[in-house]
Automatic annotation (TrEMBL):
One of its GO terms (molecular function) is ATP hydrolysis activity. This is Multiple sugar transport system ATP-binding protein. Residues 4-234 form the ABC transporter domain. Transmembrane segments: none annotated. It comes from Rhizobium lusitanum. GO terms for cellular component: ATP-binding cassette (ABC) transporter complex, substrate-binding subunit-containing; maltose transport complex. Its EC number is 3.6.3.-. Keywords: ATP-binding, Cell inner membrane, Cell membrane, Hydrolase, Membrane, Nucleotide-binding, Sugar transport, Transport. It is a peripheral membrane protein. Belongs to the ABC transporter superfamily. It is found in: Cell inner membrane.
Length: 238
């Protein structure tokens, strides 16, 4: 299956090009990690896939079909942000229901999806709380829940754990890996953390200044880095 394909994708802000022609195939159901230093274009790439940012040229395909002209809601992708982006005036349950009510899904279907997501993430006891009454880890679970209820083809995570403390980050990594196994959906995960990349990925994409340095499974990149940048970044012997 095709999953997601990027062909010669470029992005310029005004006259400054920040993504310089990315070609990439992401297998259906895989866990792909984008890794690279701050400012290399990780978020911009994710936002272009989600449709939150237009591409300047190139193509993005899902399951073989062009999607780069589609509205975000029509792409079957759900994004999870570092900042959680929960609606502060709504309860957790309302936060989970909100996007589905806009899609005009039947009430019973909405209820079933919210219950399932709450069970998967073990947040059933938090459903009546407001976001201000949640810890960082609980907030991130709700943010992930809001993506799960959409039943997307692909999940796009933009540094979802970087606001959490070290111990919780390790726990949540394991939970996200388990979630991937349970749902079997394509997941694209952005981080600047080498350990996250090495432990979570089926495939790592190493980015530098808007270009791909190397793509491959973690151990291949570690054992056979193409250049010094990849070696240094993943902490491999040069
Ligand atoms: P990363 O997520 O890897 O830290 P970003 O994708 O946020 O990197 O940014 C890549 C480059 O694009 C940076 O040089 C950044 O300054 C620039 N950039 C991102 N968004 C905008 C924008 N809206 N306007 C102008 N430049 C931007
Ligand atoms: Mg970013």
């Amino acid at each position: 299956m095709a999953g997601i394909e990027l062909k010669s994708v470029r992005k310029a802000f005004q006259s400054l090009e920040v993504i310089h022609g990315i070609d990439l195939a992401i297998a259906d159901g895989s866990f792909t990690v984008f890794v690279g230093p701050s400012g290399c274009g990780k978020s911009t790439l994710l936002r272009m896939m989600a449709g939150l940012e237009e591409i300047s040229s190139g193509e993005i395909r899902i399951d073989g079909a062009r999607c780069d002209h589609l509205l975000p809601s029509a792409r079957g992708m759900a994004m999870v942000f570092q900042s959680y982006a929960l609606y502060p005036h709504m309860s957790v349950e309302q936060n989970l229901r909100f996007g589905l009510e806009n899609q005009r899904l039947p009430k019973a279907e909405i209820g079933a999806r919210v219950a399932k997501a709450a069970e998967i993430l073990q947040i059933e006891h938090l459903l009546s709380r407001r976001p201000s009454q949640l810890s960082g880890g609980q907030s991130q679970r709700v943010a992930i829940g809001r993506a799960i209820v959409k039943e997307p083809k692909a999940f796009l995570f933009d540094e979802p754990l970087s606001n959490l403390d070290a111990e919780l980050r390790v726990k949540m990594r394991g939970e996200l890996t388990a979630l991937h196994r349970r749902l079997g959906s394509t997941m694209i995960y952005v981080t600047h953390d080498q350990v996250e990349a090495m432990t979570m990925a089926d495939q790592i994409v190493v980015l530098n200044e808007g270009r791909i340095e190397q793509v491959g499974p973690p151990m291949e990149l570690y054992a056979r880095p193409k250049n010094l940048f990849v070696a240094r970044f993943l902490g491999a012997p040069p």
